[in-house]
């Protein structure tokens, strides 16, 4: 487990980088488009929720799955980090 | 307990096991065509899923069905039918049954989890009670994750609300009792905390296959 050793605070750039890695996608991600269309599946959503939890940001799977876009997830993470 | 199927037949054997567990329903698997790029892959998965649903429906009723697509991407079933679709590892699986007998169906397939991924997702996919009972064993983490996916697919349209992975937990089976999903909170009238639902749990060499039939 290397999750808890990362010091980077998750933000939009972190999320974007993680998504590019999780989705094995070569192109840029449209921030308003559903990530489902980029091949995001429930296991990957679960992995991301687990990574965020390891960073101290408690976002439920369902919080992420309800609106799976980069824009929505950035807002969610910002709200949880500041709240 | 969930049986771990071995041997070359794997998915076919798992499919036969699923069919035997739900004799009033039909399941079918269709391979997903190989494509370039995530969007083309998603479209190929969608097609394979709908073809699997048509095959399952043809087996059940003698007529292939054309499942529509709801706003949230979930399939819309023609009158008289209910069902569920899942894809993973280049295969699409559909489970279809009669809506007169089944209030909801959910099915899910997942590839095998590595011990590392199982340990990563366990803190979110499993409740503390489940982690105490099942640890981070990759097969059990996969089965529990998948069974909760199946529960969501079967129950969420029925009660008109979404819920998270902590809304249910898997109770371990015993000598005379299979593992059961137990709701941990009140989701809707008739679906209160403590309600138990028996999932179909099948582990095989290429991953897991689960179903929830309400």
CATH fold annotation of the largest domain in chain B: Ribosomal Protein L22, Chain A
User: What distance lies between the first and last C-alpha atoms of chain A, to the nearest angstrom?
Assistant: 27 Å
Low-confidence stretches of chain A: none
* Topology order of chain A in helix (H) and strand (E) letters: HHHH
Summarize the structure.
The complex is a heterodimer of chains A (83) and B (214). Helices cover 53% and strands 0% of the residues of chain A.
What does this protein structure show overall?
The complex is a heterodimer of chains A (83) and B (214). Chain A is mainly α. Chain A has a domain at 30-83. Chain A has helices spanning 12-23, 42-54, 61-66, 70-82. The model of chain A has no long low-confidence stretch (mean pLDDT 84). Chain B folds into two domains: 25-101, 4'-phosphopantetheinyl transferase domain (Ribosomal Protein L22, Chain A, Alpha-Beta Complex), CATH 3.90.470; 109-213, Ribosomal Protein L22, Chain A, CATH 3.90.470. Chain B has five helices and twelve strands. Chain B has a four-stranded mixed beta sheet with strand order 1-11-12-7, with helices on both faces. Chain B has helices at 10-21, 38-61, 115-125, 128-134, 138-159, and strands at residues 3-5, 26-31, 68-69, 75-76, 81-88, 91-98, 105-110, 168-171, 180-183, 196-197, 200-204, 207-213. In chain B, helix 3 runs parallel beside helix 5. Chain B is globular. Chain B has 214 residues and is an alpha+beta fold. Chains A and B meet through helix 2 and helix 3 of A and helix 2 and helix 3 of B.
């Amino acid at each position: 487990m290397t999750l808890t050793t990362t010091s980077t605070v998750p933000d939009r750039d972190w999320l974007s980088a993680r998504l590019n890695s999780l989705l094995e996608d070569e192109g840029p991600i449209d921030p308003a488009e559903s990530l489902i269309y980029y091949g995001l599946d429930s296991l990957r959503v679960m992995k991301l929720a687990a990574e965020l939890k390891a960073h101290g940001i408690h976002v439920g799977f369902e919080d992420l799955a309800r609106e799976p876009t980069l824009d929505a997830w950035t807002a969610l993470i910002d709200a949880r980090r500041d709240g | 307990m969930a049986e771990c199927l071995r041997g070359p037949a794997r998915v076919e054997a798992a499919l036969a096991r699923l069919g035997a567990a739900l004799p009033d329903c039909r399941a079918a698997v269709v391979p997903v065509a190989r494509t370039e790029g995530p969007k083309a892959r998603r479209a190929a998965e969608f097609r394979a899923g709908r073809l699997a649903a048509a095959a399952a429906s043809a087996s059940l009723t003698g007529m292939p069905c054309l499942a529509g697509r709801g706003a949230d991407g979930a399939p819309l079933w023609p009158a008289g039918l209910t069902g569920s679709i899942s894809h993973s590892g280049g295969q699409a699986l559909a489970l279809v049954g009669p809506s007169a007998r089944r209030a909801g169906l959910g099915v899910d397939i997942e590839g095998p989890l590595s011990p590392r991924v199982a340990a990563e997702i366990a803190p979110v996919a499993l409740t503390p009670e489940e982690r105490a009972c099942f640890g981070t064993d990759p097969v059990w983490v996969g089965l529990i994750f998948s069974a909760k996916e199946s529960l969501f697919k079967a129950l969420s349209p029925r009660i008109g609300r979404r819920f998270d992975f902590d809304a249910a937990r898997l109770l371990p089976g015993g000598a005379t009792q299979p593992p059961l999903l137990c709701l941990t909170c009140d989701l809707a009238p008739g679906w209160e905390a403590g309600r138990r639902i028996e999932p179909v749990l099948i582990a095989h060499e290429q991953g897991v296959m689960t179903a929830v039939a309400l």
